[in-house]
Amino acid sequence: MASILGGITSSHIPAVGNAIAEGKTQEPYWKRFFDGYEPAKAWLDAVKPDVLIVVYNDHGLNFFLDKVPTFALGCADVYENADEGWGLKPVAPFTGDAEFSWHLAESLVEQEFDICTCQEMKVDHGFVNPIRALYGNREEGSGDSWPIKTIPLAVNTVQHPVPSAARCLKLGQALGKAIESYPEDLRVVILGTGGMSHQLQGERAGLINVDFDLECMERIISEPEWMTQFSNAEIMAQAGTEGIETIMWLVMRGALADDAKLIHKHYHVPISNTGAGVLVLENERLSY
């Protein structure tokens, strides 16, 4: 049976991709941010997952504002990357697992999540940059391949109305059941991306709420239901309009056991006017 090893959270800031591609990760501006990923990389190397399910929001590369599904699942064997306007060099394509994806889709629909299934899907920086931070760079045309299969799970946090924190937590719980009902032996890690507090436009552009970010991290570890008390408007009032992306961390957390163990926690500001957090949660003590 498939097993969920644990979950990771990561911001997906566009500038991260260029910092990696240009070899700037140990420059003073970037060093502490990237150092925060070292324990996560070590954990991944130890537990050796087969599949990474990446919860992210599309930024116009795959879905534009005229058609934005609330939840969309990649059901392909290959996912191509392209730049959606940040000047990011495309990376090598990602290998999917269509058979596993279709199982997840069928299970989610049975659990009353009417998921959009995508047999062709391009992935942008929201998907790519957290993987680059964890696995390094694989440039397009380099001949290098990614060492893990990936499945994109896109959550709409761009075009309102967007799903609530409570709905994202329930999606994670349904996803966990879907994964664990798969009959093949797969080792799965779920990567929740986005956030933390930031706002890119308007009078509050540049907003970072460190206290709210740190409380969100603590509550997601031990009491994820805490975030479900807030409406989306209340979350954005605290964390900025783009800070709503943090609800995607709840998808990851909902899929894990209630008593998932904290392996690593890191928070850093500012990177590109964003609060950036990393968590590693393990479902149970594993032998590795």
From TrEMBL:
It comes from the Bacteria. SUPFAM superfamilies: LigB-like. It holds the Pfam family LigB. GO terms for molecular function: ferrous iron binding; oxidoreductase activity, acting on single donors with incorporation of molecular oxygen, incorporation of two atoms of oxygen. Residues 8-275 form the Extradiol ring-cleavage dioxygenase class III enzyme subunit B domain. Signal peptide: none annotated. This is Protocatechuate 3,4-dioxygenase. The lineage of its organism: Bacteria, Pseudomonadati, Pseudomonadota, Gammaproteobacteria, Cellvibrionales.
